[in-house]
Structures are given as structure tokens and as C-alpha cells.
């Protein structure tokens, strides 16, 4: 049995699981760590060109170093913000009282919305456990 190209494409496009959130949310921590590592590498290469250590980029090392500093700064800030969100989420999920849980539910759902999809599932489980709709 052979499938036509349109059947294959329709299966790939419409039957595949889709991410409900952008890639920068679903894989944010990984991307921020990669950005940090690339920024550090660019900064080192730029410094080595400026100081004449390992690389000779004919003056482009300054620009590469500037891009490295910016990438390093953005990557570190992005990583820190994700880690802070995860800590805040875990702290709110440890709530035992139903009344306190209901009061903080909006904040909890917003925090889970800014984190990968697995945190939405954890919120749904906690809501079912607490008997909240």
C-alpha cells in the first residue's frame, strides 16, 4: 500500500503533537544556557584577538567580543528568571490549605503559563487533588 505525498503531509502536519507554547518557553532554560555558553565563547575569542593571544581576526574581535558580552548578559538574566519562576512555582505548589491554594491560584496559573507545559499538568493535578475546578 502506497501513500500519496498529500496524505503523508497531512498526516505529518495535522496528526503530529503540537506544542501549546512557543519554543522559547518550552525549551527556555536550554536555550538560555546555550546562549550563555556561546556568549562566553565569543567573549573569549574577542579578548584573545584584542590581546593577541590565540586568534587573529583583523579587528573583528572587538565586535565579536561585544556580541559575546551582550549574549552572555542576556543568557544569564534569562536563566536566572527561569530558575526564579520554577522556585516560585514549587513554593506555591507545596501549599496544603485549600483556602490558601484558592487565593494563590491566579498567581500559580500565571506562573505555570510562563513555564513549559509540564507545569500546566502539575497545576491541573493539584487542582484535582484540592477539589478546585
Describe this structure in words.
There is one protein chain. By secondary structure, the protein is mostly helical. The chain has one domain (about 25-130). It has helices spanning about 5-15, 25, 30-50, 60-95, 100-105, 105-115, 115-130.
Q: Which blocks of ≥5 consecutive residues have pLDDT under 50? A: 12-16
Could you say how many structural domains there are in total?
1
| Percent helix | over 70%
Number of contiguous helices: 7
Radius of gyration: 23 Å
How would you describe this structure in keywords?
single chain, 133 residues, mainly alpha, 75% helix
Quick take:
The chain is mostly helical and 133 residues long. It has helices spanning 5-14, 23-26, 28-51, 61-93, 98-103, 105-113, 117-130. The chain has one domain (25-130).
Lay out the secondary structure.
Elements: H1 5-14, H2 23-26, H3 28-51, H4 61-93, H5 98-103, H6 105-113, H7 117-130
Helix pairs in contact: 3-4, 6-7
Amino acid at each position: 500500500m502506497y501513500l500519496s505525498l498529500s496524505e503523508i503531509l497531512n498526516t505529518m502536519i495535522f496528526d503530529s503533537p503540537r506544542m501549546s507554547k512557543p519554543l522559547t518557553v518550552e525549551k527556555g532554560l536550554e536555550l538560555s544556557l546555550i546562549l550563555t555558553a556561546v556568549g562566553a565563547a565569543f567573549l573569549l575569542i574577542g579578548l584573545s584577538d584584542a590581546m593577541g593571544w590565540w586568534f587573529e581576526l583583523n579587528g573583528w574581535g572587538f565586535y565579536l567580543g561585544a556580541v559575546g558580552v551582550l549574549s552572555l548578559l542576556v543568557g544569564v538574566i534569562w536563566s536566572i528568571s527561569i530558575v526564579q519562576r520554577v522556585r516560585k512555582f514549587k513554593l506555591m505548589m507545596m501549599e496544603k490549605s485549600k483556602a490558601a491554594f484558592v487565593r494563590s491560584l491566579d498567581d500559580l496559573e500565571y506562573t505555570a503559563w510562563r513555564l513549559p507545559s509540564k507545569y500546566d499538568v502539575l497545576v491541573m493535578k493539584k487542582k484535582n487533588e484540592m477539589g478546585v475546578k
